Amino acid sequence: MNANVADILIEALPYIRNFYGMTLVIKYGGHAMVDEQLKADFARDITLLKFIGLNPVVVHGGGPQISEVMNKMGLSAKFVRGMRQTDAATMDVVEMVLGGKVNKGIVHQINQQGGKAVGLSGKDGQLIQARKLYIEYREDDSKPPEIIDPGLVGEVTCVNPEIINTLTDRGFIPIIAPVGTGEAGETYNINADWVAGKVAQALSAGRFVLMTDVDGVLGADGQLISSVDTGAIGRMIETGEISGGMIPKIECALDALRNGVDKTHIINGKQRHALLLELFTDSGIGTQVTV
Ligand SMILES: Nc1ncnc2c1ncn2[C@@H]1O[C@H](COP(=O)(O)OP(=O)(O)O)[C@@H](O)[C@H]1O
Ligand SMILES: CC(=O)N[C@@H](CCC(=O)OP(=O)(O)O)C(=O)O
To answer: Which residues are annotated as site, described as Transition state stabilizer (predicted)?
Structure first.
């Protein structure tokens, strides 16, 4: 080991000391799972965090991966306000892709790095309870809101963290697919950002990090905004500066902060080792969301 490597390790000491024992919930978006190198880097980062004493819990998406399989099967993917229109056939594909290919892919990658990952869907250990979601859509303020039914799409009503705590206490890394169960036994497709935010709340996580495919929240000029609060967010949503998939991220970040999560960041998962850079540098990267 040369002196530089030793210096880098020593520089990390204050961070490691601060973070020791902290629960960290990471939303790993489908758009960040781009190539094998990035996937392996992510798995290495998560494994490293576990071995230096943090408790990482991963909630993953897989939207693009679901749409790809749907296309191959001749099913067309439709979205209402960012939520996938989910009929019974689509729900089968969602559960197959998220709970199967994507979830087990992440588990395998982490295990390859020497971590002990365990894949779960919200059905395992009654982890995620949900109810049917209806979407309120208002074209403009002069018209009454339209209520849209996206099918088998759920919103989280309760997270039962027992299975997560049991696993983390034993040194395992839980990897969670965003599928939940309704009161009458229905299977629901749930937006992964929201599942991650609710899991972070249930665990009173020290950090909640959303990994996506942009550097963070970008302003109208395309520049990264390093910190946004409730006021700025409201204005940016109104002017359309924040739109599409960024809206659920921001909303669930605020919801998490109001319900016991200490800090929330949105970072670019397409940047190599983004998670480590966010945690182990003073300035961090991406956008910090504050209330
Ligand atoms: N102000 C903004 N800053 C950054 N991204 C934004 C903004 N407004 C809308 N977006 C869009 O949000 C997208 C991220 O959401 P999404 O595609 O759902 O990601 P993921 O699959 O990671 O959940 C960005 O790729 C971008 O197109
Ligand atoms: C209801 C709903 O839209 N569910 C999402 C679940 C996956 C997800 O959220 O994936 P990303 O994080 O990669 O976008 C979907 O079917 O695409």
So the answer is: 27, 249
Q: Please tell me the distance from the alpha carbon of residue 32 to that of residue 20, in angstroms, as a whole number.
A: 26
Task: Return left, alpha or beta for 289; rule: phi > 0 is left, psi -120 to 50 is alpha, else beta.
Answer: beta
Q: Is the CB of 30 under 6 A from ligand 1?
A: yes
**Domain spans of the chain?**
19-75+97-121+170-177+189-290
**pLDDT for residue 137:** 80
ipTM higher than 0.95?
A: yes
**Residue 119 β-bridge partners:** 175
What pLDDT is stored for residue 1 in this prediction? Answer: 65
Q: State the residue for tokens 């665990």.
A: 203
CA neighbor of 278 nearest in space, from 45, 120, 61, 58:
45
At the topology level, CATH places domain 19-75+97-121+170-177+189-290 in: Carbamate kinase (3.40.1160)
Please state, in angstroms and as integers, the Cα–Cα distance from residue 107 to each residue in 57, 103, 134, 172, 270, following that order.
12, 6, 33, 11, 19
pLDDT tens-digit readout, 216-266: 999 999 999 999 999 999 999 999 999 988 998 999 999 999 999 999 999
Q: Best mutation site among 70, 84, 121 for ligand 2, i.e. most ligand atoms within 8 A of its Cβ?
A: 84
Check whether 63 is labelled as a binding-site residue.
Answer: yes
Grade residue 279 by pLDDT with cuts at 50, 70 and 90: very high
Spell out the alpha helix ranges (H) of 75-191.
88-96, 103-112, 162-169
Q: pTM score, two decimals?
A: 0.95
Calculate the average pLDDT of the chain: 95
